[in-house]
Hints:
- This protein is mostly helical.
- The chain is 64% helix and 5% strand.
- It binds zinc ion.
Amino acid sequence: MDLRKVRRDAESFVRAVSQEVYENYAGLKEEMDTAAIYRQYAHLFSMELLEELRVRRRDASGDEARRLRLLQSALTDERLQDAVKELSDRRATEEAKREVRVNGETMPYRLAAVKQQNEDDRTRRRRIFDARLGVIADLNGILTDRWNRLHKLAMELGYDHYAHLFGDIKGIDFAHLQTILTRFLERTESLYRDGMEAMLKPLGLTLEAAEAHDINYLFRGKAFDANFRKEDAVPVLKRTLKGLGFDLDRQKNIRLDTEERPRKSARAFCVALQVPDDVVLVTMPHGGHDDFSTILHEAGHAEHFGNVKRTLPFEFRYLGDNSVTEGWAFVLEYITLDPEWLRRHVGMEEAAAFLDFTYTYKLFFLRRYAAKLNYELILNTRGVDAMDTTYAHELRKALKYQVPPQYYLVDVDDGFYAAQYLRAWIFDAQVRAALREEFGDAWWATKGAGAFLKRHWSTGQKFSVEELLEGIGYAGLDIDPFLEELETHLSR
Ligand SMILES: [Zn+2]
């Protein structure tokens, strides 16, 4: 194996896929053809190559061992994607073309989700929900085949099961993460129950009686839209970054794509076409709180990749544990939960109701992901059979309302991305606590905090979240700063 050629080709492959994804999602091109790129680089995903990387990794040490693990991890992930790409395409095609009928009205399956979330009438909302469940039952056939195939492949790669494979290549200690989250679930149980009951009461509902569509509807949060106007999104982003010492207008390596195009994705996203020299932040603001938080989140990815040291090896610039880049993205996103930021940047003078809403939402989200992780560890060690009841049971235990068992496969992301988000959320709360301590509550308006971030961003994804946290004085992942933040804002 010519390792230097493998690294060169892997970089070209990653960049080609990013370019293709960017052009499609930014609405510059209608069709997406990653399959042709996969064919061109098929030699990178051979069993022999993956096995050789695994062996070399065992014999290497220091940075080289780290680079080999990241390379093995990325190429293994791509091999799995390559093996199920027809099934992934079939799922996407079904989702795009299926329709549901509600009271004589026909609507596309994907759009029905948006309508459901906006529907004030509960009876009609439930009808849309039921109609969508019919399509999901059909998708489950495709997804069962897909997960069986992925689980079988993990074993062919020499691992006991899929969970074991991902624990190893992503370097995540699932058992430790579960221990942290078990404590979190216990500690926040009454805070969660009280918060949800208080928010559901005006809808005439209790948590026990609420259904999944009621919860989606509840968190739409339309009441706060007036403060988050679409035309302010980009100026507010620029002003916020300027407070930290980053001038987006002068950062030539970070392009802001704000042009309106009919086929452009409504959700902001960031693509690193070449790290750190060509990073694109794609946005088409539509207004509302989550529009602002998403733009800041994606700007976090953009500044992270845009500030990576150019001389770092390819693996540390492009690959690695995404808990890190998600963590930095959350650090910028959650600036939007600071009352002083809300006052200064979006003119919200009285933030208590808004903070109550957003922190309850955040608590809901973390509990949901903690339950998802518990479930995914069972699913990805035992296999798909009879997992629908396990899914409903695990989620209900944490969320206390009726979670439909039919969601047991559509609600699962590949490769334990749920675990990476959870690590990123814990990391983010720890980093912001450290920033507040060093630079004050309004750390986001200080150049010192900007310099701190820039220093850490320069290492790309070379280090794990645990190592980065050790570098700022923690002993590793610690849920306490997050708990303190929640309890401060949600104490009733
Ligand atoms: Zn992200």
